[in-house]
């Protein structure tokens, strides 16, 4: 399938649109917004997990892979969503969480009850001779990655929440179950799949990580992961010529991703990687703040653009998702230059080689939540952090500063549809507070304004569809050492595209050569220069896209 002209829109169903007043978004709510999504021009809707779940980790703790959580609606609603989306040229991409299940899943419950078959689905291991956990690995949400199960007399591994037990992929029965689940959804006409933390499924060895590291070296890009993916591909989505897949790759390497998403690998269509979203992590630590390192950001984007192309592999392109603070608040200026910086970030990303993802609300310039009361937070990672740091004696103000910058809830606040009560998201009480700035920032206002952030996203999506060079052009960096400007070229047999983006609130000069013949395609200021000069003066957060035909 040619996916090079496609764009994906990510929906966090819990926060998109609530139609029954329970404060939680639902499938009928998504259906009611399909016209809005069609007008934006997107091709796929990635839905975060909608299966029955205790919701400890907002659906990433799945209790039943073959049903819809009643809070979101029914299977009939899901089928209607697929049909109505398809009628608008849109496909659904489902989120498949196969590194772990909820401990409420019947497999885990049977394992606890003593069923040997299901015990072998999980990673139960005896403690050390002194009774402590089998290894010193840390859960991604804080604390040990092992929980003692008295019923079994052993510990089970959980890389995320204690209610998310890791599956044992060395067990062929587990792999057969997983393929069967994918086929179940294919049977409903689903062609798109996103595989959650899929590069963590093959554990190398159960040993203590030296120097108090968290253990990731023992399970990231493990020894059998590529083999398992090829097997899953052959047994499920690989049988569908229309399939499009993306794997979420945690702390991975370029050479691994060339394999995961190589055109001839028989694994996945594309990968999400996160290196470019750690440039503001001090010492690689999520909960240690530093201003973003622009030079590193440019280098990482460029290296992945070039490296994936050299390996004939395909990138996902994204600034935002449900796990990240809003990029606009992080790399832009969400107050003084909100519109300029949002449109600049979008321009810089959408012209790259790969599949762009738009995370709900990004297209209207939604910002971080900036909560200042711990009771406003819902995310397990945030509430765990607060509890752990408070117990360690850290003062509340310091923890709040971290959460305001990094909490996943910053991106999870309800979609802002209108300036009215609860942003038009719900007639009831929303499960997570609505950002008060919805009075200014909302879809109703954005879709009316021809110069809005929304209009700019629409234009960028159209450029991918109408300019073949955006789909297949080679990437080369420009002005690599410039301290303020990210710039690149895309080139194919028919045209050259040139993109300039100023990442700062001060003007910047872009010295260029060979500028003759370039015409403006899109800019984010009303009066962008129609032709390219030898020296371009970029205004705060200005972005310019030019094309030269051959
Ligand atoms: O995320 C995997 C992951 O490693 C992160 O992005 C994680 O949320 C972050 O490191 C915490 O700081 C995926 C899902 O996207 C996320 O929502 C789930 O919580 C997680 O897997 C577990 O299924
Ligand atoms: Ca609802």
Automatic annotation (TrEMBL):
Protein name listed in UniProt: Alpha,alpha-phosphotrehalase
GO molecular function per UniProt: alpha,alpha-phosphotrehalase activity; alpha-amylase activity
Signal peptide limits: none
EC number, UniProt record: 3.2.1.93
Keyword Hydrolase attributed: yes
Key words of the record: Glycosidase, Hydrolase
Origin species: Cardiobacterium hominis (strain ATCC 15826 / DSM 8339 / NCTC 10426 / 6573)
Entry-linked CDD domains: AmyAc_SI_OligoGlu_DGase (cd11333)
EC class name: hydrolase
Family to which the UniProt record says this protein belongs: Belongs to the glycosyl hydrolase 13 family.
Gene name of the encoded protein: treC
């Amino acid at each position: 399938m040619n996916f090079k002209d496609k764009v994906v829109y990510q929906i966090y169903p819990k926060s998109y649109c609530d139609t029954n007043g329970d404060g939680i978004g639902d499938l009928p709510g998504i259906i009611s917004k399909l016209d809005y999504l069609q007008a934006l021009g997107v091709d796929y809707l990635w839905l975060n997990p909608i299966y029955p779940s205790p919701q400890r980790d907002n659906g990433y703790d799945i209790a039943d892979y073959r049903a819809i959580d009643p809070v979101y609606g029914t299977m009939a609603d899901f089928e209607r969503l697929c049909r109505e989306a398809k009628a608008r040229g849109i496909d659904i991409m489902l989120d498949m969480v196969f590194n772990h299940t909820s401990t409420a899943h019947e497999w885990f419950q049977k394992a606890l009850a003593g069923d040997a078959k299901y015990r072998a689905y999980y990673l139960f291991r005896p403690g050390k001779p002194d009774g402590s956990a089998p290894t010193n690995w840390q859960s991604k949400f804080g604390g040990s990655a092992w929980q003692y199960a008295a019923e079994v007399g052993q510990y089970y591994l959980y890389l995320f929440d204690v209610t998310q037990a890791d599956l044992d992929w060395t067990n062929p029965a587990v792999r057969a179950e997983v393929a069967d689940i994918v086929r179940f959804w294919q049977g409903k006409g689903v062609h798109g799949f996103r595989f959650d933390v899929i590069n963590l499924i093959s554990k190398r060895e159960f040993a203590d990580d030296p120097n108090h590291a968290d253990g990731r070296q023992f399970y990231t890009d493990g020894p059998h992961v590529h083999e398992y993916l090829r097997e899953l591909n052959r047994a499920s989505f690989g049988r569908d010529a229309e399939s499009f897949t993306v794997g979420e790759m945690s702390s991975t390497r370029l050479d691994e991703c060339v394999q995961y998403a190589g055109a001839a690998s028989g694994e996945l269509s594309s990968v999400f990687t996160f290196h470019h979203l750690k440039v503001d992590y001090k010492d690689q630590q999520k909960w240690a703040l530093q201003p973003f390192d622009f030079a590193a950001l440019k280098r990482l984007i460029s290296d992945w653009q070039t490296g994936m192309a050299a390996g004939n592999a395909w990138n996902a392109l994204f600034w935002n998702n449900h796990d990240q603070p809003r990029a606009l608040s992080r790399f832009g200026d969400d107050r003084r230059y909100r519109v300029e910086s949002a449109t600049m970030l979008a321009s810089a990303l959408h012209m790259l080689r790969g599949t762009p993802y738009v995370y709900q609300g990004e297209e209207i310039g939604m910002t971080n939540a900036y909560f200042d009361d711990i009771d406003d937070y819902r995310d397990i990672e945030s509430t765990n952090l607060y509890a752990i740091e408070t117990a360690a004696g850290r003062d509340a103000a310091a923890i709040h500063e971290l959460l305001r910058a990094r909490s996943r809830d910053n991106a999870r606040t309800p979609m802002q549809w209108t300036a009215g009560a609860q942003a038009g998201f719900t007639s009831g009480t929303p499960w997570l507070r609505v950002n008060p700035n919805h009075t200014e920032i909302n879809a109703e206002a954005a879709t009316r304004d021809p110069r809005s952030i929304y209009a700019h996203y629409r234009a960028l999506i159209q450029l991918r569809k109408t300019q073949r060079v955006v789909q297949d052009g080679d990437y080369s960096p420009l002005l690599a050492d410039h301290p303020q400007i990210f710039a690149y070229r895309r080139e194919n047999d028919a045209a050259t595209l040139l993109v300039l983006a100023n990442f700062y609130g001060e003007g910047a000069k872009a010295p260029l050569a060979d500028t003759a013949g370039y015409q403006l395609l899109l800019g984010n200021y009303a009066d962008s220069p129609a032709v390219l000069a030898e020296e371009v003066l970029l205004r705060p957060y200005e972005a310019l896209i030019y094309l030269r035909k051959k």
